[in-house]
Design brief:
This is Methionine import ATP-binding protein MetN. Keywords: Amino-acid transport, ATP-binding, Cell membrane, Hydrolase, Membrane, Nucleotide-binding, Translocase, Transport. It is a single chain. The protein is of the alpha/beta class. The protein contains twelve helices and 14 strands. It has a six-stranded mixed sheet, with helices on both faces. It has a four-stranded antiparallel sheet with strand order 2-1-4-5, with helices on one face. β9 and β10 form a beta hairpin. α3 packs parallel to α5. The chain is elongated and about 80 Å long. The termini are far apart. The structure holds adenosine-5'-triphosphate. The site of adenosine-5'-triphosphate has 12 residues, from β2 and α1. The site of adenosine-5'-triphosphate (ATP) has 12 residues, from β2 and α1.
Length: 348
Amino acid sequence: MIELTHISKVYEGPNRVEALKDISLSVKEGEIFGVIGQSGAGKSTLIRCINMLERPTSGQVVVDGVDLTKLNDKDLREQRKNIGMIFQHFNLLSSRTVYDNVAFPLELQGLSKAEIKERILPILDIVKLSDRLNNYPSQLSGGQKQRVGIARALASNPKVLLCDEATSALDPQTTKSILELLKDINEKLKLTIVLITHEMQVIKEICDRVAVIEGGVILEEGPVVDVFTGPKEKTTKEFVSAIISHKLPEEAWRHLNVQSEWQEGLHPIIRLNFTGDVVDEPIVAGMIRRFGLDVSILFGGVDYIQDTSFGHLIVVLDGERANEERGIQYLKDLPIGSEVIGYVATNH
Ligand SMILES: Nc1ncnc2c1ncn2[C@@H]1O[C@H](COP(=O)(O)OP(=O)(O)OP(=O)(O)O)[C@@H](O)[C@H]1O
């Protein structure tokens, strides 16, 4: 649905900034694609290139089969009806009611009052604002204002919705309800959604795939579950660790006096990561039964990334060294992630 090919964006001026450097991305029809990055990474520039609010310095932007970089202003305006956008600070007109804010883009397109009404009443129903039609933005909560923004974006029946930090100004509870609404319209209206955010929680809640951007470059991208369970780049690891702690807390690490070499009398500490149904397998019981090992659990938990369970466990294997080595091999042969992260003395 969206193909970005070799996109670069340079802001010329006394402080020349290369905001995007040769970015290529592909977003499939009907998916929710998230771009995450820290402040200044290039997220806003990237999302604004998709509807050409920013014109890329070079590269191609194809949305629904049309190369937007080749269009004149009139054709671009026409194609933009396919691409709705919502913003962090909602960008509503304060002198217009909820109804009139949502009607505004359709008025600009020259639709009649009756056509507008027919188009937007069902949308106001989807975003649950039917009882607020005559309120002004100042009379609404942040979440309600964003619902107006969403309804206005949907008014033109777009195929793509761009969300520019759409929940960053909202509290966690309201964020959750807006994300649920986005998921809902993605499913009901088969809308392709691209969102940018600096919050991993947003990616975790609703995205199918994610790209991590830093310094105008995509560091890595893939299905959310894959990126969460196997982050490759340092920045990605930091984002992931903000919501999933794979690590033993620092204090516990010190208290245990963890060593990096497997010396006499020490036992391996192992980190296990597992996704999906495998979490239900009796892995710990297997190690006890097969190799006569004592398995102490130091740390662990199960997270859910949408419908996929993602477990992590840090354990110490304690037994004869040969059996400990067999246990490590047994784990390696299972369809889970396992890594020896240090060695400790136990009380036995
Ligand atoms: N209109 C502009 N003129 C000059 N430089 C700009 C302009 N817009 C953005 N930049 C620069 O481009 C780089 C990327 O900015 P961008 O706003 O895309 O990042 P971001 O990831 O969205 O950050 P934030 O979350 O803080 O908005 C930054 O160095 C920024 O200062």
